[in-house]
């Protein structure tokens, strides 16, 4: 699971209103090289929940020096874009779980695939 | 190298392009560039998409044939390798001769006799040169193990990598320097003679077969008869050996009413399963996936979801071919998500083996598409192959599934700018479901396609600007009880 995906995932357990962002508990993390496309990164940033991304990167120990708030004119800052690229696309959680911040329900991640299926009684 | 005595047949209305010499030397050592017409078979319904791709990657205008599923375009031999970069074509062939209005004789005997006589009069030379050149393009990759690949049956869960190898071959071919290609064709160049005994530089006997496709109700003969008689004459003329299974050259005889095209195949097996090594029961061919993706025109940073991804064919084709977007492939079924991940890993490993950056902009999640664990209004494009109810699921399930699907997809899709491209054979059910969603989805365009013999529709939808939960349909839906569905895939 990449952190870009995590940024979009939310808990949908019945009755939960504050299911975002999911907490990450990772037991295996990998870094895979993905081709850098600055236009992709700079256009993606406004679509993200920035705080959630930085927090998730921190949970995995891969925050490096990403700022808590977005810098101005980030579109032209290639160094910054490269850091964001790495965190969005290259860091992957292979084993672990995601946890709903409100209900505590855990969703396992195995072989990089988060299993978000709910049981009968949770829907 | 000049063409001697090889003018166009007098019967042809569209003959193969002239032999042009790009060299001022009279010696036939240098590889002259000639122009030929290439024919390509594409998924029916996506002819225009394929023509667009040809315009974009080869820079020429393609002609769409009346015989559906085919396009034609000119190319010069120095650019031949480009045809192997096309993602929307299933099969490629070089045209020997085309007839728009061939007047078949009344009787079967006369017609077949005429076909036999045609064999020796056709302008084979250029087409054979191209076939030969194409052979060197393929050889560059090194021989595939086991020769011709057998087609993988869709319901077999094997790790068949042959289709993947084809793509590998073609990609490496594309990165080979053009200069190298010309040097090779120069080495193989021979004087153009109409009654040339052998086309290949080696002294072995060439094996061939003729494949005939015939459509139309005014013909007095069958495709088998045409293939047999035409093939016999070709064998006589060239002194090749007929072999139905281990052939070097496949001659194509395509007859569609009054339109007749004779060609030589450039692809030995269909290119359409190129990405998939781990098949599922209903894996969509990659050329169809490519056509669907082109339809929605992915932009840089678009988030593209396939909520019923099966083996991941669509998002994987997207991650490779429209790589400035991000793909999330999801399915509720264990086997499906595992196969998707395996297919992705297989492609990544192949890229790594070629010293390319292997990571792809794609991720896989296991989820229930009626209750997507995705933030509202965060997805730009939804693209998927919806269960047909014939090979997967059932028609009754579709009546419940489709409306729920469309609603959940509308929720996650960005209002105003979002799009959906949905393939389904259950047109009635889809039409009913979409008619109740006018506040959320607007139909932009429909492409009618053929999937595994079933007539299906690819619907391009636009997400309206309406906020989810506030259209009249939504108010109605809230009063209808929801219940959990289990889908056995």
From TrEMBL, chain A:
<dbReference type="InterPro" id="IPR005651">
    <property type="entry name" value="Trm112-like"/>
</dbReference>
<comment type="similarity">
    <text>Belongs to the TRM112 family.</text>
</comment>
<dbReference type="GO" id="GO:0046982">
    <property type="term" value="F:protein heterodimerization activity"/>
</dbReference>
<dbReference type="GO" id="GO:0070476">
    <property type="term" value="P:rRNA (guanine-N7)-methylation"/>
</dbReference>
<dbReference type="InterPro" id="IPR039127">
    <property type="entry name" value="Trm112"/>
</dbReference>
<keyword id="KW-0539">Nucleus</keyword>
<dbReference type="GO" id="GO:0048471">
    <property type="term" value="C:perinuclear region of cytoplasm"/>
</dbReference>
<dbReference type="GO" id="GO:0030488">
    <property type="term" value="P:tRNA methylation"/>
</dbReference>
<keyword id="KW-0963">Cytoplasm</keyword>
<dbReference type="GO" id="GO:0005654">
    <property type="term" value="C:nucleoplasm"/>
</dbReference>
<dbReference type="Pfam" id="PF03966">
    <property type="entry name" value="Trm112p"/>
</dbReference>
<protein>
    <recommendedName>
        <fullName>Multifunctional methyltransferase subunit TRM112-like protein</fullName>
    </recommendedName>
</protein>
Automatic annotation (TrEMBL), chain B:
<keyword id="KW-0808">Transferase</keyword>
<dbReference type="Pfam" id="PF02926">
    <property type="entry name" value="THUMP"/>
</dbReference>
<feature type="region of interest" description="Disordered">
    <location>
        <begin position="1"/>
        <end position="30"/>
    </location>
</feature>
<keyword id="KW-0694">RNA-binding</keyword>
<dbReference type="GO" id="GO:0003723">
    <property type="term" value="F:RNA binding"/>
</dbReference>
<dbReference type="GO" id="GO:0005737">
    <property type="term" value="C:cytoplasm"/>
</dbReference>
<dbReference type="InterPro" id="IPR053943">
    <property type="entry name" value="RlmKL-like_Mtase_CS"/>
</dbReference>
<protein>
    <submittedName>
        <fullName>THUMP domain containing 3</fullName>
    </submittedName>
</protein>
<feature type="region of interest" description="Disordered">
    <location>
        <begin position="177"/>
        <end position="200"/>
    </location>
</feature>
<dbReference type="InterPro" id="IPR000241">
    <property type="entry name" value="RlmKL-like_Mtase"/>
</dbReference>
<dbReference type="GO" id="GO:0030488">
    <property type="term" value="P:tRNA methylation"/>
</dbReference>
<keyword id="KW-0963">Cytoplasm</keyword>
<feature type="compositionally biased region" description="Polar residues">
    <location>
        <begin position="10"/>
        <end position="20"/>
    </location>
</feature>
<dbReference type="GO" id="GO:0016423">
    <property type="term" value="F:tRNA (guanine) methyltransferase activity"/>
</dbReference>
<dbReference type="InterPro" id="IPR029063">
    <property type="entry name" value="SAM-dependent_MTases_sf"/>
</dbReference>
<comment type="similarity">
    <text>Belongs to the methyltransferase superfamily.</text>
</comment>
<feature type="compositionally biased region" description="Acidic residues">
    <location>
        <begin position="185"/>
        <end position="196"/>
    </location>
</feature>
<dbReference type="Pfam" id="PF01170">
    <property type="entry name" value="UPF0020"/>
</dbReference>
<dbReference type="InterPro" id="IPR004114">
    <property type="entry name" value="THUMP_dom"/>
</dbReference>
<feature type="domain" description="THUMP">
    <location>
        <begin position="163"/>
        <end position="266"/>
    </location>
</feature>
<dbReference type="GO" id="GO:0043527">
    <property type="term" value="C:tRNA methyltransferase complex"/>
</dbReference>
<keyword id="KW-0489">Methyltransferase</keyword>
């Amino acid at each position: 699971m990449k952190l870009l995906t995590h940024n979009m995932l939310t808990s949908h357990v019945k009755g939960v209103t504050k299911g975002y962002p999911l907490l990450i508990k990772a037991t295996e993390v990998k870094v895979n090289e993905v081709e850098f496309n600055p236009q992709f990164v700079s256009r993606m940033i406004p679509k993200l929940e920035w705080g959630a991304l930085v927090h998730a990167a921190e949970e995995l120990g891969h925050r490096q020096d990403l700022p808590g708030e977005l810098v101005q004119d980030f579109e032209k800052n290639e160094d910054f874009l490269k850091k964001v690229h790495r965190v969005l696309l290259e860091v992957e959680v292979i084993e672990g779980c995601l946890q709903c911040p409100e209900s505590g329900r855990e969703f396992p991640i195995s072989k990089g695939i988060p299993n978000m299926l709910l049981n009968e009684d949770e829907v | 190298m000049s063409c001697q005595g090889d003018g166009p047949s007098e019967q042809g209305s569209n003959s193969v392009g002239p032999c042009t010499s790009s060299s001022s030397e009279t010696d036939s050592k240098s590889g002259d560039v000639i122009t030929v017409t290439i024919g390509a078979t594409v998924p029916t319904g996506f002819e225009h998409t394929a023509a667009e791709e040809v315009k974009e990657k080869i820079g020429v205008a393609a002609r769409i044939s009346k015989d559906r599923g085919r396009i034609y375009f000119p190319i010069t031999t120095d650019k031949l390798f480009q045809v192997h970069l096309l993602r929307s074509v299933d099969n490629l062939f070089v045209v020997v001769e085309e007839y728009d209005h061939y007047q078949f004789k009344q009787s079967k005997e006369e017609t077949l006799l005429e076909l036999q006589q045609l064999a020796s009069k056709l302008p084979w030379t250029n087409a054979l040169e191209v076939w030969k050149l194409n052979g060197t393009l393929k050889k560059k990759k090194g021989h595939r193990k086991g020769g011709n690949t057998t087609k993988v049956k869709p319901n077999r869960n094997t790790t068949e990598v042959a289709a993947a190898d084809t793509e590998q071959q073609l990609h490496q071919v594309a990165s080979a320097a053009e200069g190298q290609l010309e040097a090779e064709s120069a080495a193989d160049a021979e004087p153009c003679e109409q009654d040339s005994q052998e086309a290949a530089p080696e002294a072995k006997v060439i094996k061939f077969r003729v494949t005939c496709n015939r459509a139309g109700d005014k013909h007095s003969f069958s495709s088998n008869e045409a293939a047999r008689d035409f093939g016999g004459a070709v064998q006589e003329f060239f002194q090749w050996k007929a072999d139905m299974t281990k052939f070097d050259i496949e001659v194509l005889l395509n007859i569609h009413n009054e339109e007749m095209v004779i060609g030589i195949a450039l692809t030995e097996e269909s290119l359409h399963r190129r990405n998939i090594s781990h098949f599922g029961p209903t894996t969509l061919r990659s050329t169809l996936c490519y056509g669907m993706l082109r339809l929605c025109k992915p932009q840089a940073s678009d988030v593209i979801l396939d909520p019923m991804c099966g083996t991941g064919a669509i998002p994987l084709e997207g991650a490779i071919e429209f790589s400035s977007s991000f793909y999330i492939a999801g399915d509720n079924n264990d086997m499906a998500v595992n196969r998707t991940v395996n297919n992705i890993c297989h492609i990544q490993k192949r890229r790594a083996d070629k010293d390319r950056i292997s990571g792809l902009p794609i991720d896989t999640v296991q989820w229930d598409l009626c209750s997507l664990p995705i933030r509202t209004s965060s997805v730009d494009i939804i693209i998927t192959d919806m269960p047909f109810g014939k090979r997967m699921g059932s028609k009754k399930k579709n009546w419940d599934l489709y409306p729920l699907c469309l609603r959940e997809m509308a929720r996650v899709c960005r209002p105003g700018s979002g799009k959906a491209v949905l393939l389904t054979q259950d047109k009635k059910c889809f039409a009913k479901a979409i008619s109740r969603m006018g506040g959320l989805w607007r139909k932009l365009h429909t492409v009618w396609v053929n999937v595994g013999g079933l007539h299906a529709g690819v619907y391009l939808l636009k997400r309206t600007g309406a906020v989810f939960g506030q259209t009249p349909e939504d108010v109605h839906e809230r009063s209808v009880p929801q219940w959990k569905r289990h889908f056995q895939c």
